[in-house]
């Protein structure tokens, strides 16, 4: 059986993405074959396409997650043919059919739309873990969420509000996105150029308790300069493509913490940690306590155009591919 997919044979700009028909892989032990309905685009896909995330095994298919229906299972699988699921795919998700390890497949209720389901896996599971396991936020914390208008940022804001956090300061690349993040629950919006001064102003020069940094580069060092004593900087990405640096003296005398987290690493080495988190966020989406705005839905064949939108940063929420 063949499948339509977006593939690339080399690293480069969005033009390297090609819509082709290729062979559908066979499932192995403890794997499922899923017929895709929607897949989402994450910024990590851009970095992989360009070649910033190491060497590629070409023919390469991008994509981290998928929403769809199970069409084939392993013997003694906990899943059945016809189950509606979200999943982290094994070798890319920009395709009509994808394979996933059973530990990275999660059932969704009939009442949850495939659109919302496809928007959520990476950003909602990551955000929940960042807030509650890594950042260990409390209601009285002052939070800084960088890149708040993106998929992860949008989710961090909503989950923080659900947890009762009283003050959220957000950065955006363009103040035209201020209304969007305020509607999600942000209290103070600033740019990357002004956030340090604004955080100190809002906290009587004490600094923020927890800062979520997916940008790195200069943003990391400036975040430390407005982090409170005993505060935590959670570093989980480098969308700036620059290395953030700090000195040991930045942390030991101030009792600050710097914690790193990668959902990709956790999927690879400790996938069992994700199932209980997935269950919680699926319930929050199904009960409409969480909602992820969909910026745009492209056809699978238009993946290159979707990547161009992501790279322009001129969007709010999630970008999906309809398979």
TrEMBL record:
GO CC entries: cytosol
Pfam families: ADH_N, ADH_zinc_N
Molecular function via GO: mRNA 3'-UTR AU-rich region binding; NADPH binding; quinone reductase (NADPH) activity
Name of this chain's protein: Quinone oxidoreductase
The species this protein was found in: Candidatus Kurthia intestinigallinarum
Residues spanning the membrane: none
Domain Enoyl reductase (ER): 12-321
Keywords attached to this entry: NADP, Oxidoreductase
Keyword Oxidoreductase: yes
């Amino acid at each position: 059986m063949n499948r339509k997919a977006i593939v690339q044979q080399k690293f480069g700009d969005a033009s390297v993405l090609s819509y082709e028909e290729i062979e559908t892989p066979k499932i192995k032990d403890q794997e499922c074959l899923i017929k895709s309905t929607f897949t989402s685009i994450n910024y990590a896909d851009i970095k992989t396409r360009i070649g910033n995330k190491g060497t590629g095994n070409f023919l390469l298919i991008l994509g981290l997650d998928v929403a769809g229906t199970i069409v084939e299972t392993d013997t003694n699988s906990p899943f059945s043919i016809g189950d509606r699921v979200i999943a982290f795919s094994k070798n890319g998700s920009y395709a009509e059919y994808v394979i996933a390890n059973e530990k990275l497949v999660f059932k969704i209720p009939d009442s949850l739309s495939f659109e919302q389901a496809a928007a959520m896996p990476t950003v909602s599971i990551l955000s929940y873990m960042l807030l509650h396991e890594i950042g260990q936020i409390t209601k009285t914390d002052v939070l800084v969420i960088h890149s708040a208008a993106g998929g992860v940022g949008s989710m961090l804001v909503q989950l923080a509000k659900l947890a009762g956090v009283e003050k959220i300061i957000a950065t955006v690349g363009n103040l035209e996105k201020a209304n969007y993040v305020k509607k999600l629950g942000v209290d103070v919006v600033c740019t990357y150029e002004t956030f340090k001064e604004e955080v100190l102003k809002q906290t009587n020069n004490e600094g923020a308790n927890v800062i979520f940094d997916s940008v790195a580069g200069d943003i990391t060092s400036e975040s430390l300069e407005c982090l409170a004593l005993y505060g935590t900087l959670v570093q989980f990405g480098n969308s700036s493509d620059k290395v953030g640096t700090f000195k040991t003296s930045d942390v030991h005398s101030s009792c600050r913490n710097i914690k790193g987290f990668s959902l990709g690493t956790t999927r690879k080495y400790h996938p069992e940690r994700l199932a209980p988190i997935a269950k919680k966020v699926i319930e929050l989406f199904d009960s409409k306590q969480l909602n992820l705005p969909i910026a745009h839905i492209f056809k699978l064949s238009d993946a290159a155009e979707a990547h161009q939108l992501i790279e322009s940063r001129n969007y709010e929420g999630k970008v999906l591919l309809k398979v």
